[in-house]
Amino acid sequence: MSNKKYKLFAAPADGKKAPCAFFVTAAGCRHGDSCKFSHEVNASDDIHKVTEHGSVVSSESEPEMGKSKQNDDKNDPFAPPRNKGGEDSAAKKKNRRGKRSEDDLPFANPKKKVKVETTVNPSSTTPLNNNKQKKVPKTPVESTTPPFLNLNLPIASFSVPTAKNTSSKKDETKVPSKEEKTATEIQKKKNETDGFMLPKSNPAAKKWINAIQTTQSSKAFAINYNFAKYKQKDEESGICSANGWVKAKPYGPWCEKLPQVIAIDCEMCETQDPVSGDKNFNALCRISIVDAVTKEVLLDSLCKPAWPVSNHRSWVNGITEEHLENVQFTVRHAQAFLMALCSEETVIVGHAVHNDLAAVRMEHYCVVDSALLFKATDSETATVSLKDSAKSILGKDMPETHDSVNDALTALECLEYYLQKGSDMKTIDRSSNTPSSAKSFTFYASQLFVHRIPNTVNEEHLTNLFLAHADIKPLSVETIEFQGSMGKTHVVFRSPEHATLAFQYLEGGKPEPDPSGRLQKKVFLRNKSYIRVRKMAFEKTEKTEKSDDENDGNENTKCTRRASSG
Prior knowledge:
This protein is of the alpha+beta class. It has helices at residues 44-53, 63-75, 87-104, 110-117, 178-193, 203-206, 209-216, 221-224, 227-237, 314-317, 321-324, 331-341, 353-360, 370-373, 386-394, 404-421, 438-445, 459-470, 496-505, 542-550, and strands at residues 172-173, 246-247, 261-272, 279-291, 297-302, 309-311, 347-350, 362-363, 367-369, 382-383, 447-454, 476-477, 481-483, 486-492, 512-513, 519-524, 530-535. Helix content is 33%, strand content 15%.
């Protein structure tokens, strides 16, 4: 059935023709005179009355039906049901239903959101698609600035005032334990199979390959560069998680024009967590990096430790509380710099580099370490200091106050001499003078070094040991650093006199000099095993006392690189 409608008027009672419904409209009747209905309009008033009240559905109508329907809706007290008939009512119902459902939901319909976002603005000349705006390709411009210089880091420059000549780093003596020998054998097998990363892409770095391999084959390398140990210690003490460590990216075009060999040196201080009381004895407070080829200083900045500083060690590094007060440069900034500078093939050279890498929390094995390459004249197991290396090789006296830029350059010069001499490298004569600077002597003489500590012994046990034997309570016992089943630590007393008495009254073996000349003794445990307790200062002799009067002494070590024989 067609949906077109019109009305037929009722025939008059006098039998005349019924009025034509189309004739009275504006369009008129299309049949004209042949129409079978009346075209007379003399009774228009009656016709309109009939139109309002009498109607039937037919198949031909147009505008009149719409007008009549609107009037009916307005006047009828009961509006017709809107949910029946016609596409308009169905569409309105659908729209109302859709609106209610969107209002009830906590989030807008994502499809509609996408539809709105992807609507094209006719006034815009930028073409859009249904996914993402297409970017106009740009012609790549090669930057001439190295990426590590574009980091905009808050570098805090620092320089050490001119000081009297003295030592730079301390003599370290190391006697390999059974566990160390085992670790060395494991490391040797690793080197024979796959080995560590070696530089194979850049000529400037490749000339250091032999020195790198000699460093990696050293007996102490497997222990000193066991970064898993440092990560575990950091995590246990709450310093940082394993995710706080970084490792350089593989070599690629991104680093071809960057320095391939760098020298590094760091200064450390002591910090303490105010909540747990844990200490970090090697917190980074200054870092210096030098290009090994050009000798250009790439980075030299003070570094703000994460924990409050409990000991600045100003007499060692020249850094005071005031120097660090407004520093914003942190370990993470140092890591960002190294990640932008180094690939896994970058050669990092220095003295006891593992200490610097541990302080900056970077895992890296492509290193040349003078502490592992140089041998002492008087001991096969002793680790020579940078001070002694500089004096023997370069004829250079190191300043009393440590300067990390100077230390990095000095270690580099010593290692360049090693490259020239190779197997003809001479042994290093070690100095054994007691540190005579008042502050440095007091610092070392107030400590005892304890090693060969079994993993069943903790810091509290050591405190009780000195209380029981000498009736002297230490100021502190540093966290025991275990390597395998054995560990080592430093015990700090109130004064050199307290440390001397504590050592003297320990019951054990007879005091004997270790390979470096400092006195140590055995202290036995209940199970018949023993630990070794050693003085940190040398015994003064007439010779050293005379030397003290002539020159205000030679400091024996960098505080963060203490003697660690075991």
